[in-house]
Design brief:
The protein has about 375 residues and is an alpha/beta fold. It has 2 domains: about 230 residues, Isopropylmalate Dehydrogenase; about 140 residues, Isopropylmalate Dehydrogenase. The protein is built from 13 helices and 12 strands. The strands form 2 sheets. A 10-stranded mixed β-sheet has the order 2-1-3-12-11-4-5-10-8-9, with helices on both faces. The protein has a two-stranded antiparallel sheet with strand order 6-7. Helix 8 packs parallel to helix 9, helix 10 runs antiparallel to helix 11 and helix 11 crosses helix 12. The longest helix is centred in the N-terminal third of the chain and has 19 residues. It is globular. The chain starts with a strand and ends in a 6-residue tail after the last helix. The C terminus is likely disordered.
Length: about 375
């Protein structure tokens, strides 16, 4: 039987992006070996790397590559040397253009607390038991894309705009996911003061009639931010517009214990975009200390939502859980007296667990985790 082939456009990005994405690629190759999948991994510059390569944060060749790909794996973008550059040369401009080009309007950010890491959160461990939520953030509308926008001397303007159609399509993603989870959607807005939020609330309420098996709750964004840390177990699927989702998803990273753990999937009609939630962290670049687990967990989302390979996705998720349960820690996760794995060591451990688990003879995880403090 012919082996199905997939093309993955790999955009390593800036800062720690290339380091964590290298480990995500390592895991993808392990998945291909174990599940007999042909994966073509094609690297292309993006962000600051794109500016250096061709004077464009989203180069034309990269644009063509992501259009042809079955899925896109992205590292973080961001380069302090371009902070004073014109807007068209900023890495973040390239990122917004990439999202718009792929029309990935629904950003999924799962947040779950691994029992072995509950102590890493500033919240009390008893508040973190059974926390498992999915943030669904609208990604191609709102303040980040609205027109008019710009600066004129001491005055600046950004425009917040949404259409009913934009709201319906992302809300439908949230309701469908809730049907597969615990059947509860919390829609976040600021309908007491914003007309756009009033449209958001009215539209989501109307759509909910098509999902009588899903409970719908509305919260103002300030209340949602408070409840996210006060009672995170109350949330199942959290539906938000672009700006609110950007802020709340970073707040939710506190629950998991580190921003370095969290993946994301951005979905639309074409190739999906998969990336860790964290930034480029230029001060950590080149030191082999960055946590690659967010990038590797993004591989699991890529396999599940991008390529439709749930068994392979489960293998990656299981490998991450096994490693964390055994005490594998990168610098951001290690407490006093705990050993530390470098970026490459953690990636190699996860890849080994993925590749060998089916045979029943994975490398003994305890031996892979160094003793003492690194």
């Amino acid at each position: 039987m012919a082996v199905k082939a997939y093309t993955i456009a790999v955009l390593p990005g800036d800062g720690i992006g290339p380091e964590v994405i290298a480990q995500a690629e390592h895991v993808l190759r392990a998945v291909a070996e174990r599940f007999e999948i042909r994966l073509g991994l094609e690297q292309h510059p993006m962000g600051g790397a794109g500016v250096r390569a061709s004077g464009d944060p989203f180069p034309a060749a990269t644009r063509d590559a992501v259009t042809r790909a079955d899925a896109v794996l992205l590292g973080a973008v961001g380069d302090p040397s371009l902070d004073a550059a014109p807007r068209r040369l900023k890495p973040e401009t390239g990122l917004l253009a990439l999202r718009a080009h792929l029309a990935v309007y629904a950003n999924l950010r799962p947040v779950a607390v691994h029992p072995a890491l509950a102590h890493r959160s500033p919240l009390k461990p008893d508040r973190l038991t059974a926390v498992d939520l999915m943030i669904v953030r609208e990604l191609t509308g709102g303040l980040y894309y609205g027109e008019p926008r710009g600066r004129d001397g001491t005055r600046a303007v950004n425009t917040l705009t949404y259409s009913e159609a934009e709201i319906v399509r992302v809300a439908r993603v949230a309701f469908e996911l809730a049907r597969q989870r615990r059947g509860h959607v919390t829609s976040v807005d600021k309908a007491n003061v914003l007309e756009v939020s009033q449209l958001w609330r009215e539209t989501v309420t109307r759509l909910s009639a098509e999902y009588p098996d899903v409970q719908l709750e509305h919260l103002y964004v300030d209340t949602a931010a408070m409840r996210l840390v006060a009672e995170p177990r109350a949330f199942d699927v959290l539906l938000t517009e672009n700006l609110f989702g950007d802020i709340l998803s970073d707040e939710a990273a506190v629950l998991a214990g580190s921003l370095g753990l969290l993946p994301s999937a951005s979905l639309g009609a074409g190739p999906g975009l998969f990336e860790p939630v964290h930034g480029s962290a230029p001060t950590l670049a080149g030191r082999d200390v960055a946590n690659p687990l967010g990038a590797i967990a993004s591989v699991a989302l890529l396999l599940r939502h991008g390529l439709g390979l749930p068994a392979a996705a489960d293998a990656v998720d299981d490998a991450i859980a096994t490693a964390l349960s055994a005490g594998a820690r990168t610098e951001d996760l290690a407490g006093p007296g705990e050993a530390v794995l470098g970026t490459r060591e953690m990636g190699a451990l996860i890849a080994d667990l993925v590749e060998n688990a089916e045979s029943g003879a994975p490398r003994e995880v305890a031996r892979a985790v160094p003793k003492g403090v690194a």
